[in-house]
Amino acid sequence: MCGIAGCFGIKDVDTINRMLDALPHRGPDDRGIHTHGRTVFGHTRLSIVDVAKGHQPILAEGGKTGIICNGEIYNFQKIRERLSNRCCFSTRSDSEVILHLYREKGPECVADLDGMFAFAIFDDDDFMLARDPIGIKPLYFGRVDGHLYFSSELGAMSLAGVEEVQEFPSGHFYTPKNGFVRYYEVPRAPEAMITEAHEAAERIRHALVEAVTKRLLADRQIHVGAFCSGGLDSSLIAAIAAERIPHLHTFAVGMKDAAGVESDDLKASRIAAAHIGSTHHELVFTEDDYYEALPKVIEKLETYDPSLVRCAVPCYFTCKLAAKHVTVVLTGEGADEIFAGYHYMKHFSEDQINEEGRRLVAGVHNLNLQRADRMGMLFSLELRVPFFDTAMIDLGMAVSPALKIREHRGHRMEKWILRKAFSGAGLLPDEILWRYKVQYTQGAGCEDLGERLAEAEISDDAFERIRLQHPQAVINSKEAAYYFQIFRRFHPQDSVLKSIGIWTGFDFDEERASVRGTLDGSWRPTAT
Description:
It is a single chain. By secondary structure, the protein is an alpha+beta fold. Helices cover 38% and strands 19% of the residues. The strands form 5 sheets. Strands 2-3-1-9-8-10 form a 6-stranded antiparallel beta sheet. Strands 4-5-6-7-11-12 form a 6-stranded antiparallel beta sheet. The chain has a 5-stranded parallel beta sheet with strand order 15-14-13-16-17. The protein is globular, with a radius of gyration of 22 Å. The two termini are 38 Å apart.
């Protein structure tokens, strides 16, 4: 994983260097900058593939063409083999494969890539930008006097002095000639859906094992671990990985209540870790630890949305713990969106469930994926998300919703078919495989700390004043107001605030089933 920054149309090396100065956490191992005409490319590198020779920008044709990339291409070896008889590779980096593929196929090369990525290519006076299908890796852009600047994070973009920061849309590439071109769209449910449980379970099992396996392609010296909260999603990923990685490191965090009782995730994670035989690590954080971490979380999360902040704090502690032992971790994000894991979906009619899942996948780059990227990169830790493999998404959208939410032992069970796919396989004990879903913060024991703090710190009058003073901001609660004040300390630029209002104005609480917001800034309520 890496941080990228650059500009087109102006040789502004000083600004790009300042932007790179804001991204050392994304790439502590190396830094590079290259100019070509009126183009400047900058890169900070976290070494995963080709540790010795993967310096970026990677150049070709005597420096007339080059690439900077943040991400991981899982099928790069197959592409490299296909190109090897007509291309001369100077590194073993997966990013160099993209550059040579571009030289052969042009911007449409992006459709051949299987992975998570945000990259920029210059080709003499021409260029392109691209982002992966789901938006796992971040990319922002803006203009100053018509010149285009781009970067991995809002904090770096604010240093460019752009009039307005915009998020680069997932599943798109951009060229000056064609503008934004969509190359991937989350599929709608097909007319002929998979309705037979045995077939669906077999295909899901195969697809998830394949998705995990392809994410273990990094160089052997890179240590890979897995989050393991004891919930279904992360435990499944960890269990599959443990069959392929001896002594897999797993990680869980949580709190103790006033009576000294540990949170549910700590207890459940031990059961899962013992079953899969992982080397398990725990971190117990206190209320004071939570409040101390909160400003740093909001600064690096680059949003003040309460639901994201709440979940980001335990994620922060998990990433901090994992970074002491590994460079890459697998996580369970995506199962809820694809297999109807949110409790509010139980109130939907069957014909609404897959469409809701599709909508959530399309917007997840501003929700769980933003949290995962920012908290992982804060500790120079790469997070990989097997459930968001495009083949997994395509399959999930084709599975009948009648198999996703189904009766089990007297109540409607979310993600029923995902559980059924691994039932009886011995991969996980039943108490984990059929564990009732709880929110990340609830499992860690910290679900209401931020809300309690905000209620104590923000009066009714102060809440109304903050809302009136910042009409662009989405402030629907005292908790949001409290986080907003912290956010503005670190991100005072109006250009960044406008970006947050348009692109990340989601208020998502899975228990209250309120999901609002679309990319164009319009608002609509969903299930309540």
